[in-house]
Amino acid sequence: MATMSGFAEGGPAGAMFGLPVHLSTQIPTDLGDGTNEDRIVVARYSDCRLWESPVRMRVFPSVGSGTLTVRLELWRYSIFIPGRYPAAISVIDGTGLSEPTFS
Length: 103
Prior knowledge:
This protein is mainly β and 103 residues long. The chain folds into two domains: 1-48 and 83-103, no CATH class; 52-80, no CATH class. The protein is 0% helix and 37% strand. The chain is built from no helices and eight strands. The chain has strands at residues 14-16, 19-21, 40-43, 49-52, 56-64, 69-75, 78-81, 89-92. The strands form four sheets. It has a two-stranded antiparallel ribbon with strand order 1-2. Strands 3-8 form a two-stranded antiparallel sheet. β5 (56-64) and β6 (69-75) form a beta hairpin.
């Protein structure tokens, strides 16, 4: 399974309503009028498709033959389709996610 940049190391931090919860530094926590609103991103990853090819490499010895060097080429193909089912990824926001105040 691929890891995504910004996620907390070690997998899910817990569960909520039967869904795994991942913490991320990439999601803002200072939105709204009082800069105290969060965002929640809900995703059904089984509806998002990711295909990756194996890593491939080529060596071109004739490119730098005058200086006894070679050119290395390394590549990999990948495709990610998150929009197969548009409702598979949703953002929950609003005043209900602001920090509660008690008087």
